[in-house]
Structure prediction request, 387 residues.
Amino acid sequence: MTGTLADRGMFSARAAGLTGGKLAGLLRLGFAEKAVDLAVGTPGFPDTPVSMVDQACNAMRMGRNQYLDPSGDLVMRTRIARSLPAAADPESEITITVGGTEALCVALLSLVDPGDEVVVFEPFFENFLGAITMAGGIPKFVRLRPPGWSYDSAELRAAFGPRTRVVLTNTPSNPTGKMLQAREWAEIAELCQRWDVTVVSDEVYSSFAFDGRPHVSAADVPGLRDRNVVIGSLSKSHAVSGWRLGYLRADATRTQVFRRVHEITTNGTAAPLQIAAAQAGLFTGNRWNPAGTLAARRDAVQSIFTRLGLDCVPAQGGCFFLAGISAVTRDDCETYVHRLLRESGVLLVPGCSFFADEADGRQFVRIAFNRSLETVQAAERKLLGSS
Prediction:
């Protein structure tokens, strides 16, 4: 149907090229089945900070309900800038966006022309392909392979060429939990310098780094100082996914263009929620640091599925990991997920959603562990019969 309508000229090539995600339908099924949800990334942990809720109510009652500067509340931009390891000017290098999703789209629409190539590590966050399609770009995939979700240097180098404009990274990664390390960043930086390419780095899970690993941001890499764009978000880190608060961090020249595109797409995000986030005092210091508890949830959830027989690669950061199912079933991932939901009432995500060729992900499932203790215990009872 879509192809027929597109052929008649009803839709743009960008819109006709978009494919609907499978996750929404699966989640509707899980809701109908009242499943224990280990699929969607909506935080069950941590809880939304009470101070942010209180500040939001106060801001609305005080009449802060109209437009702000489209670039974002300056106090919030300042708080974000001060929380980043690499110095950033809140006046000229930070832009508040409608979640990390708008930040991604604004960056690619600003940097990519139709026909330009975008290097993407695979498996990837499902929205990456939609954003590249909307910009008219052509994805060039570089495979990450277990157990360390590492790439082959020769494959990475082969992905670059004269049409490459952007490398799109995600650290910590959704869906694997992989974190790019200094050695990998150095190789990416060398290629970006050689081919005059910009890195767009989705770092929305940067505050969730585990086991003593440091989060290395694209903005911290010497070879990328003049060619990095960082995407951030409060959705998972502060459990306010419904508030849609994200940001772009880039040099002043790129930021000028990003802000023009941002004004056309949304003209800003919710004023009282920005003010609340700025005034809650949670960007710096030790008042808000749930990473340690989240690492314990990761270990607990991984233990459940290891005992179930799945091959689990521990997440280095973030709130997801991919697990291999080939040791427990000959089914493909979608069949396995539906059977697990039917028989145990636990919902996962088929791994095929995160690969360009779905067949490459047929033996994986994605598991979310940013869950309440009650949810983790319920999953254990349903899957293992534990009391």
Q: What stands out?
A: Residues 291-308 form the longest helix (18 residues). The chain has two domains: 19-46+290-384, 50-279.
